[in-house]
Amino acid sequence: MHTQTIFELSQEAERLLQLSLQNLEALSAMPAAMLESTTAAMSGEVSNIIPLHFNARGLEAQQSMLNNELRKITRLEMVLAIVGTMKAGKSTTINAIVGTEVLPNRNRPMTALPTLIRHTPGQKEPVLHFSHVAPIDTLIRQMQKKLANYDRGKLAQQLEIDKDMNALLGRIESGEAFEKHYLGAEPIFICLKNLNDLVRLSQVVGADFPFAAYAAIENIPVIEVEFVHLAGLDTHLGQLTLLDTPGPNEAGQPHLQKMLTEQLSRASAVLAVMDYTQLKSISDAEVRQAISAVGKSVPLYALVNKFDQKDRNSDDEEQVRAMISGTLMKGHISPGQIFPVSSMWGYLANRARHELALYGKLPNPQAQRWVQDFAEAALGRRWRTADLDDIEHVRHSADLLWEDSLFEQPIRKLIYAAYANASLYALRSASHKLLNYAQNAREYLDFRYQGLTIAFDELQRNITRLEEDMALLHNRQEVVSDEVRHEVEEALEATEIFIATQQNEILCAIAPIFSRENILDLAGHDAASVRADEQTAPEQLVLDDEGQAQILLSKIHSSCELILFDAQNKIARELGLRFDQLESTLARSLNDAMRPIELRIKDELSHAGFRARISFPAFQANQLNFNTRGLFNDAIAPESPTSGRGQGVGGVRDTVSRWLNNPGWGWDDYVVTRTRYVINVSQLHEKFKRHIAHFCEQIRKALAAQVDVSVTAGMATFFAEFSLCLAGLQESLRDSLAVRQQNEHATRALSQLLQQCITTATWIQEDTRLLRDDIQTLFAAEQP
After folding, report:
1. Residue 389 C-alpha from the chain's centroid
2. pTM greater than 0.70 (yes/no)
3. Cα distance between residue 11 and residue 2, in whole Å
4. Average of pLDDT values for 336-350?
5. Rounded CA separation 698/178 (Å)
6. pLDDT higher than 90, residue 646
7. What's the rounded Cα separation, in Å, for the pair 746 and 753?
């Protein structure tokens, strides 16, 4: 590590950040009308709209962002944000990275507040610092009053009351405050559980949880603990910190989407935890949308969790990487930064190895449940407590489980690298944020400065024209919505015909497999050698050997499997092409409809003397592609030999018993039984046909639902962003008009201030570009 070079680059980054903050202070002193009503109205409908950069709220956000980068530069801290849906295994993944259980796992949202987990060498036992606890204590006092007269029966109907929630209710009734420090895993668990349950409870009783008080990263809880994987490594110049973020819409709190976006913008890098079994779900798409919005300002990585659930028919590692990189993330992340893993296996294996290294044995499985989970995963479902006494076997099994978890690769390629280059990550993050700020500031300041040179009447005319353009925008939105709806209906109708055709082709291809001639051929018989049996229907095949019956079922299964796999690949490929084309068609329709408005506005402003940059949004609908593989996997369900055997065993025996009118009388003493194995080919065929029809219907319904959600969300975002852009232009013109109404002295003073800020923003932009280039050169040299 080039320590001196890092120090010099850090000094330069700190200087530019301080200069940017001073420039913001100057900007905030300028006369500016408030846009709160417009912004609030928009953000209330569309939660992923970024506020305008230089209105009152936008200035505060920029100051917070720059201060956060300054804090990271001062500490040389690399913040790796972990993001994922509730069931993706985010907490388990963090526990696997840390090497011990620092976050609780429950089958409900567990990250109402972002939480930092900082690697602290020598801190063997985790400690939670929650210094900014005052807003939570205020909330508890408010809820104490509300719960005093609240009907507990009604509360139980609205909320799941478990022992954790009961404990929290008792705590609120007694007015017990939160501590500022918690030492040890169990106290930390209780604190985090209480915080998350407090969010759910406050929502039910109508108390506002103070999310805004924890918008700044320095106010959120911090867990300090030594990461097991990093223990004993050389101390590097910098810190590695994980940021556990709330998933979008966790606990029914839609505003968490905004909090997630804000937290990601403050990270040095982002690690998305995706669920291998739910890669194309709507909730997973919300996470992908959030991390894509971060853009190129921070590096992106992905852990595809639950890869242990892969079977021989599922996508392998390379297929998963290609699908996420290309189809799901649209090229925002490279395949080499995607790691399929099993976080649960990684956590269990690593914790077991750590316990064995420290104590020479595992804890009592009855006292610590994770030992039971480890034993089942590493030793098998039939493990016994005595198996844990064979320490060498347990250690070997833990090593194999760690290997099977595939966690070694991301630990070495991501966590080790992040720790070794924490200072570089912090510097790179700061340089990108500085460049974004400088560019936005220059565009805004240029526009405001031009407004001072435009005639008063011309300003008023442009404001009026923008109002007309915004009205035109809303009219065009209704027309375009009808056009888009028609395009979607046509696409779904064509897809319906395609799926129906594929269903018929599958049924036709499978039918010959269940013909009697083919079944006899697979069983190794010919029609002439099959003995007529009065108890055997033509659609049944009777075999004397169980192994022979199982082999026959396996052959039927394999034959059907080949047909279904071929069909599923064809359907997946065709649907992918169809809906990629639909997405392009919709984007083109929106652009064609809205481009005249954009050109008109640019032309109007240009004639008035403005050099306006209008940010024309892009329509994106990342959920349109649909994965048929998961649906068809369950369609392959061969008849169990057990059910056939039961039918065959009872046949002769029950008949003889009825003849004797004494069921079971003397049977074992006088009769030698002959077990037979009956396969009902007709029923098996019908079962396959029902499965195929069911899953084709599932595809139809899932496509219709996902296309509807995707198109609705994509269009809402498109029009809201364009409306905000126009509103921002209009607000800047009004600010200029307000200044022109003042005296000449005030106008001249503002003009000078604007020129000074423009010059400063230009210096910041140029110097930051040089800083970024130096950092990228050094970063490339340090990468393995």
Report:
1. 40
2. no
3. 14
4. 91
5. 48
6. no
7. 11
